[in-house]
Amino acid sequence: MTAASPGIISFFLENGYYPNHEAYVYALADAIKQEYDAISQAGLLLQVDCPDLGAGRSALIAHAPLEEFRRWAMINLEALNYAVRDIPADRMRLHLCWGNHKGPHQHDVPLRDIIDLVLQARPAGLSFEAANPRHEHGWTVFAEVKLPEEKVLIPGILDSTTNFIEHPKLVAQRIAHFASLVGVLAT
Q1: Max Cα–Cα distance, the chain, nearest Å
Q2: Confidence class for position 106, pLDDT limits 50, 70, 90
Q3: Per the structure, how many domains does the chain have?
Q4: Residue 143 falls within a domain, yes or no?
Q5: Could you write out the three-class secondary structure of the chain?
């Protein structure tokens, strides 16, 4: 069951009351925690949708220094971790994306620039776009960054924004790229 992250809620619902972004996103975390807990208590896997971590860079502060975006994203991740603190990590996944809007996406933050932050999120599963032309190379990040044992990658290997039917060999190559770097578990 999907639910919006505190960070993406703050993206769409402008703060008109709290003194700063951190206070606002933590208030949102307190409010959305009830929904997260209800999803978990119903026995469902919680997917927290966090496009703020990817799309937030180009949509909010594209021309600000990367470190300013990283500070903002870290506040959002800390608020998320606070909100999901009572849910087992293996019962959650985080969905990171850069938005499926039509556009050049030239200001998208590279996965490499945020992976260290994203890996600090409590959810064990990490779902992200890995097939569109701007981010398909993201698999190379895992040649440098070791995936923690408790984390599981869920790369999106089909591009949902194209009218092309991707060839099965291309899809297999995408899977093989990730498997060669992070390994796979036998089922």
Answers
A1: 52
A2: confident
A3: 1
A4: yes
A5: CEEECHHHHHHHCCCCCCCCHHHHHHHHHHHHHHHHHHHHHCCCCEEEECHHHCHHHHHHCCCCCHHHHHHHHHHHHHHHHHHCCCCCHHHEEEEECCCCCCCCCCCCCCHHHHHHHHCCCCCCEEEEECCCCCCHHHHHHHHCCCCCCCCEEEEECCCCCCCCCCCHHHHHHHHHHHHHHHCCCCC
In tens, the pLDDT along 19-52 reads 999 999 999 999 999 999 999 999 999 999 999 9
Q: How many CB atoms lie within 10 A of CB 2?
A: 12
Structure tokens at 95: 């969905």
Cβ(150)–Cβ(124) below 8 Å: yes
Per the structure, the complete domain to which residue 45 belongs is given by: 2-182
Structure tokens at 157: 């290997």
